[in-house]
Amino acid sequence: MTDFRIFARSMVVTISFVVAAAPFVSRGQLANAAENQAPATHKVTKFNVPGAGKSAGQGTVGAGIVDDGSIEGWYIDSGNVYHGYLRAPDGTFTKFDPPGSQGTFSYGMNSALAITGYYLDSNGARHGFLRSAAGKFTKFDAPGAGKSSGQGTVPGNINTKGVIAGYFVDSNGVLHGFLRSPGGKYTKFNAPGAGKGPGQGTGPASFDGLTDAGAIAGQYNDSKSVAHGYLRAPDGTFTTFDPPGSVGTFVSGLNLKETIMGSYVDSNSLYHGFVRTVDGTITSFDAPNSIATGANNINASGTIAGSYVDSNGANHGFSRSPHGAITEFSVPGAGTGSGQGAVPYSNNSTGAIAGPYVDSNGVNHGFLRQ
Predict the structure, then answer these.
(1) pLDDT tens sequence across 139-193
(2) Of 173, 204, 222, 278, whose Cβ has the fewest other Cβ atoms within 10 Å?
(3) Taking the model in full, what pTM does it have?
(4) Has residue 323 got a pLDDT over 70?
(5) What letter would DSSP give residue 31?
(6) Cross-strand pairs, 283
(7) What is the domain partition of the chain in residue ranges?
(8) What stretch of H or E contains 9?
């Protein structure tokens, strides 16, 4: 993997088009059976940023949702250029690009609506940005970040204190994690066992990879380019882990209780979701109709939003309760062919879910499920 793209959230989209997973293995205890049998009715709102392209590979990607219902993400215009946006709870859009951007990718947002991500320069190098709620940009580069195409600084998270977590790619193509304080001080980190070759190294998950207390969850690629999970405590100590049977672990995030979730691949190249509690217990799961399951986000209560792939290669959404009950859903208008369908990226404490869906023409659109 040469670009963690803040790791597992995009990894789920990539793997979901081409892999298969094992049968569903966890539906919760009998006490939660009613939760499976009587799914609630949910409102789905579809949206497109004004100016988003209408051809295959273009359109609107809904990425992160916070508790007030604001959504951040990016859109691809008719010239295949990427731009950032913020969608307010009333449905109005604010589009943005840092000065000098040749392509903007918005990844993290906190409850104060401060947004972080990266932009591309004319050489294809990546640079971090922080956009305040008032629209003021601060551009930054982590010390040691490379300056060539595919290198540079890639922020992915911002907590309520204004601390930013992400990774940077150095001039040798190696990835390193970093923290940036509100005052601009950097802390570089590497997980024990992280490889030192191109495409190897350490990075955090995006959007929900950093807690207010300073805990970070993510993954690292070792010297054989095998991915493993880690938890970095606020004091800088690491705990590394892999779900039983994993030959590749892709961490998507954690919540304030340090419950971690993500996906893993087994020796048969089958993908499954997992959740790891603070005591180290790891539970594997698969959506009932899945041939590939990916967990993308976890909210404060422990509810997980993610996507699964059906036998036709199409994507669908799911929500997994803290007790293990899984509710599957599709978005009206989403395509049903391979590589099409809905991919939930995030969920907030109210249970609202945001993400993109791909229609039958290959165009991206945003959705909000409440």
Answers:
(1) 999 999 999 999 999 999 999 999 999 999 999 999 999 999 999 999 999 999 9
(2) 278
(3) 0.90
(4) yes
(5) G
(6) 275
(7) 8-369
(8) helix 8-16
